Amino acid sequence: MGGPTVTATRILRGQTMGQTGEETVLEFEKFPNVGYSKTYSQDRQTTDSAATATALLCGEKTNYRLIGLNDQARDGQCASQHGNEITCAFEWFRADGRSLGLVTTARVTHATPAAAYAKSASRNWEVDGDMVGVTGGCKDIASQLIYNNSDIKVILGGGRQFFLGKDDYDPELNDGNSGKQRQDGVNLIQVWQKDKEMKNANARYAWNNEQFDAIDPATTDYILGLFEASHMQYDLDRNKGPKGEPSLAALTQKAIRVLQKNQDGFFLLVEGGRIDHAHHENNAKRALYDGLAFEDAVKIATNMTDENDTLIIVTADHAHVFNIAGYPTRGNNIFGIVDNDEDENGPHFTTLLYGNGPGYRAGAQTDVHATDTTDNDYLQSAAAPRFEDSHGGQDVGIYARGPMAHLIHGVHEQHYIAHVMSYAACVADNRNRCKGIVTTTPTTSGAGNNDVSKIYLFTATFVACYFLCY
Fold first, then answer.
1. Is the pLDDT of residue 8 over 80?
2. What is the domain-level CATH number for residue 82?
3. 3-state secondary structure 408-455
């Protein structure tokens, strides 16, 4: 979600409301504090979501493909993992009695959410079948989520196949083995359910809209929702019926309602993960409509929380090689062909373009005047061929509101964001910051002395935190 993605999403939002679009203001653009994040990793100018999420959630830059490990570890080398683990957001907030939640439209074991709770020398070790031949005692990410993080209150997203045993049938696919189900035969969903039964906790599992809508957050302690075998559907294609999937906004709303019951506060990670995936495909329309769904989720969070006690940070783990070009007339369809280009002899091209990816066109194919560029499946042109578009190395925006949001004020190293959250919440190395502070009587939303009682991190990806400092 780099600058061009934000700009194009802004224009699309306005155009869906019958306006020209350029004048629109997205919900997170209303936040009073704005900065930039430098997204390079320890070993790459342009990096991946594992290294960037580790920076965002653990406060330390690391190497490409590593999750929750410092830069002494090496990609795919299990032995290098041991002794190089670093503590991250969920561990910080868990130690202080805060509730934890994660919401994503990607697999819940994918790189960004995994960085909140897992330690892995490879982001690709999402399930045991991905670790054939790996020795040294490393565990797959799905196992770590269920066995090592049983206290997480809310887990919502995709990736159901990694939690089903190899002989289990997927309820949606009617498939006994997708090839990605657990080779150890363990049904981790059942493991999760049995753990909650032993705790006498009210826990609910859902895989579709009907089941999810039936969950009452007021009486539910834990929610596990796995709505697709792999990633959730793009919002443009989302099945909204009973057997379909909730929106990112609906997932966020229910997550907050469960988490806000803890008067000590909570930390919620919300990821609009499929913006990234559509960009990889050079499919700008699906990327931007997922951008709208992401903004809807941010709006839900701002409406449900109090700026006096809740820090909300909206940022991106990285950008893409995506751009807005030409000289189109104001109000020109954001997915359309540039309608007013000064180069009369040049080929027709779209306002939205990519630097590389599967949308590459050679020769006469570069002129798209006879193409319906607004079609859902249209791939914008790319300058260089690649199986998928690469990430972009440019800085990305940081938008913040709430206590300590003023610490977002300029150009920052990406791992700085984690330290802002830690400082605002008085957790981890900042745990003693709030000692001796006289707080006011908490409101029903948990406000006290301008210290954060809740934190949300939205990363295209967002984070929300709700904290009390007593």
1. yes
2. 3.40.720.10
3. CCCEEECCHHHHHHHHHHCCHHHHHHHCCCCCCCCCCCCCCCCCCCEE
